[in-house]
Amino acid sequence: MINSLKNKESFFVHRDFHVSNIMFFNGKPAIIDSQDSVYGNRAYDLASLIDDVRVKTTANERKKIFNEYIKLNNNINIFEFSNDFKILSVIRNL
Predict the structure, then answer these.
(1) Helix, coil or strand: residue 28
(2) Is 45 exposed, middle or buried (0-12, 13-18, 19+ CB in 10 A)?
(3) I need a labelling partner for 48 at 20 to 30 A (CA). Which of 20, 21, 26, 67 fits?
(4) Could you please report the per-residue DSSP string of 51-81?
(5) What angle do CA 38, 6, 2 make, to 5 degrees?
(6) Can you tell me the distance from the alpha carbon of 3 to that of 46, in angstroms, rounded to the nearest whole number?
(7) pLDDT by residue (tens digit) across 19-41?
């Protein structure tokens, strides 16, 4: 599955990015628990957040978050990003 990833660029990846590690400090979002951070595929953290098995979300909510990420990062190849997102979501949840 790893060999099927399309994006070979490296980005900062938290690798434990889920709702329990997002806090608010002085009215602003803050990310905690970053000791497992690495440089890797940019889709990993979004997959962690959207497909977190600990939080019940609807397919519509997941799609909305995914589409908002794409909209905010308009330089992304949607086909490659979607491919990597799906693969990394499966891997992360295994």
Answers:
(1) strand
(2) buried
(3) 26
(4) T-TTS---HHHHHHHHHHHHHHTTTS-HHHH
(5) 65
(6) 20
(7) 889 899 999 999 999 898 999 99
